[in-house]
Amino acid sequence: MRTQVGIIGAGPAGLLLSRLLALQGIDSVVLENRSREYVEARVRAGILEQNTVDVLTEAGMGDRLHREGLEHRGIHLQYPGVRHQLDFPALCGRRVWVYGQTEVVKDLVAAQLAGGPPLLFDVSDVAVEDVDTDSPRIRFTDADGVARVLECDVVAGTDGFHGPSRAVVAEGGSGQQLWERTYPYAWLGILADAPPATDELIYAWHPDGFALYSMRSPSVSRLYLQVDPSERIEDWSDDRIWEGLATRFALDGWELSTGRITEKSILPMRSFVSAPMRRGRLFLAGDAAHIVPPTGAKGLNLAVADVVLLSRALVRLLQDKETDLADAYSDTALRRVWRATHFSWWMTSMLHTSGDAFDAQLQLSQLRRVCSSEAAARELAENYTGLPY
Ligand code: FAD
Ligand code: DHB
């Protein structure tokens, strides 16, 4: 088997890269070690930046997004006694959309299977070779158990945080640098068949811990509670979760709407950056190279930003035979990665309680500042809606 770009991983990064390359006449093959059902059902991010919506729309992936996605003009910041709306269009002329990562992935998979480049699910034993030459290859076992070799001009490692590609970069001679921060918090996330009791997301600071009110549709709410990372989901009954949410979102004259919980899990929170995002003909994009804590909803959007940059670099490399954009890819991508890393760390630090009384006063002071100063609010709004590419 031969292709121009071998893509490892059919998450949003790999699928979108394949689509953007196809639109430019570059062929690719996407290899995914999970099943289609698993990939399409994995509940993750829910907020798309304006940039992400623009890219998906231009790539012909905007029909259902514009029909079913919820356009939001802002978010609410809450602390005891106060719920304050930040109006993004007024602050920075941009907005965000609620459209689940599951839906983005379903749209991309459907387009790919309807005449797009090959997409192979349920592969195993993926191994990348010869990335320091101009003809790298990927060895893998296909869904029928047959050992195969994919000869490529370039390999894209879009295989998420646990995929094999990052280690291949690390084994290169140019050295790898890692930065990591694990946070002493986790998020307990639920999906519930409950109409959202809010028009826009609520990021709530509370002495018991942070809570986030998000949604997936007019009838499905997505809610999160800050919990200790050592907590076990079995110890959180539905009643205990609803009580925790009601306490943390409490506001005079407002009521939480409850419903059947259809999914619940606990997510660890970490920041992680690995550089460079390239070794020879292997390029990393998305969670394969970096992780942000979820506060601020940057993970998926950052993966899309990487892929936009990488697709341009690969078109230039493979069609024009020019290496300038490929050579600049890692440094250029990492500048945006570090901005998002800072913003996600800042949102996380402002909103999650540690039990320390001094920290709590600093957080409340910062929240009052963002809710009273246009300059402070604009800084949040610009980062949240996504800085222009
Ligand atoms: P992924 O979506 O991880 O895709 C990588 C793909 O590679 C996967 O399909 C995987 O199965 C495949 N793969 C892995 N190893 C191999 C292999 N050996 N061979 C072949 N394929 C392989 N971000 C937010 O903004 N908000 C959120 O609420 C949020 N919640 C999250 C919850 C969880 C549990 C996780 C893990 C992440 C969450 N994120 C969230 C982050 C966001 O989902 C990611 O940033 C986004 O999925 C990155 O896309 P990606 O394509 O780079 O990686
Ligand atoms: C969602 C997740 C986030 O991390 C966030 O900041 C906002 C919304 C969500 O899953 O809907």
From TrEMBL:
Keywords: Monooxygenase, NAD, Oxidoreductase. It comes from Geodermatophilus telluris. The lineage of its organism: Bacteria, Bacillati, Actinomycetota, Actinomycetes, Geodermatophilales. This is p-hydroxybenzoate 3-monooxygenase. GO terms for molecular function: FAD binding; monooxygenase activity. It holds the Pfam family FAD_binding_3. The keyword Protease does not apply. Transmembrane segments: none annotated. PANTHER family: 3-(3-HYDROXY-PHENYL)PROPIONATE/3-HYDROXYCINNAMIC ACID HYDROXYLASE, BLR0106 PROTEIN. Residues 2-344 form the FAD-binding domain.
